[in-house]
């Protein structure tokens, strides 16, 4: 592992999901050849319920500690957080699209300029990790390992569509003992979780975020290129608006993951979702093995 991954391990105490009280609905789905996951709140327990950029809060102390960790002392943490959110909002406005994403390293660079601090790229990455781990502690969802092993054992292709930043894929090895992927081939290589590099679609790489269908369309096209159709693909996520709705629009089967009270999002106040329902509801990752016929 690299130094950033070592730091993620050091800053990630154990975290468990909270109960949801939901009842699983495990109707069998036949003919699946690929399973695609969201990350925060689905494969990883998330202390904030999502990547930290998705929410605001009083985080001045975390900013002060993160800056101190990279050698910048005496900063007003609350002002830094205000500048961080302002920079994100400005980037969203400039993007002129419905669901823009930011590149957090660029955002932190602009914030540092505002407070007259200069850091080399490696220290900006360290700062981003230090802050994220403090405001959004993460850990592996229960049953993650055995579920991924079983899915790979059934020769199912594994992929990701997730709102994310550069540190998201880095987190898997320190938190789970293995990286997501070890190669570009089907089921990767030994020592990884078997995700295919070509089937990992991260929002920060394309500067577009869910619930836009753009990320799902990218994955659909990549799956079709290897002979897997949308109706043969199951998408698993914890958010009806960001996960189930756009995945269904591109033709995927859907599983709502209702396994953590922090991250479960039914979005019942969103009228656009009135007619949207997942194909199945799972409250544990292991239940996916019961519905995949």
From TrEMBL:
It comes from Pseudobythopirellula maris. Gene3D superfamilies: HAD superfamily/HAD-like (3.40.50.1000). Coiled coil: none annotated. One of its GO terms (molecular function) is phosphoglycolate phosphatase activity. This is Phosphoglycolate phosphatase. InterPro entries: HAD-like_sf, HAD_sf, S-2-haloacid_dehalogenase. The keyword Hydrolase applies. The gene is gph_2. It comes from the Bacteria. Keywords: Hydrolase. Its EC number is 3.1.3.18. Residues 1-24 are annotated as: Disordered. The lineage of its organism: Bacteria, Pseudomonadati, Planctomycetota, Planctomycetia, Pirellulales.
């Amino acid at each position: 592992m690299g130094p950033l991954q070592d730091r993620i391990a050091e800053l990630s105490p154990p975290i468990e999901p909270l109960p949801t009280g939901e009842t699983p609905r495990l109707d069998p789905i036949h003919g699946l050849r690929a399973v695609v996951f969201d990350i925060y709140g689905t494969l990883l327990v998330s202390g904030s319920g999502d990547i930290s950029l998705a929410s605001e809060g009083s985080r001045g102390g975390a900013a002060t500690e993160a800056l101190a960790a990279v050698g910048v002392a005496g900063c007003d943490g609350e002002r830094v957080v205000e500048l961080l959110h302002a920079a994100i909002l400005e980037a969203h406005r400039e993007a002129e699209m419905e669901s823009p994403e930011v590149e957090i390293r660029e955002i932190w660079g602009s914030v540092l300029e505002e407070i007259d601090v200069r850091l080399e790229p490696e220290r900006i990455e360290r700062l981003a990790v230090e802050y994220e781990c403090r405001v959004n502690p993460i850990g592996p969802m229960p049953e993650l390992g055995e579920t991924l092993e079983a899915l790979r054992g059934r020769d199912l292709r594994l992929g990701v569509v997730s709102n994310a930043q550069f540190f998201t894929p880095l987190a898997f090895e320190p938190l789970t003992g293995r990286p997501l992927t070890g190669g570009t081939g089907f089921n990767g290589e030994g020592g990884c979780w078997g995700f295919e590099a070509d089937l990992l679609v991260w929002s920060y790489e394309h500067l577009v975020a869910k619930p836009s269908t753009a990320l799902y369309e990218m994955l659909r096209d990549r799956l079709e290129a290897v002979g897997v159709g949308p109706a043969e693909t199951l998408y698993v996520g914890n958010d009806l608006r960001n996960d189930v709705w756009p995945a269904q629009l591109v033709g995927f089967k859907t599983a709502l993951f209702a396994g953590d009270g922090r991250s479960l999002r039914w979005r019942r106040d969103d009228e656009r979702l009135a007619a949207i329902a997942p194909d199945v509801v799972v409250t544990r990752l292991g239940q996916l093995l019961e519905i995949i016929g």
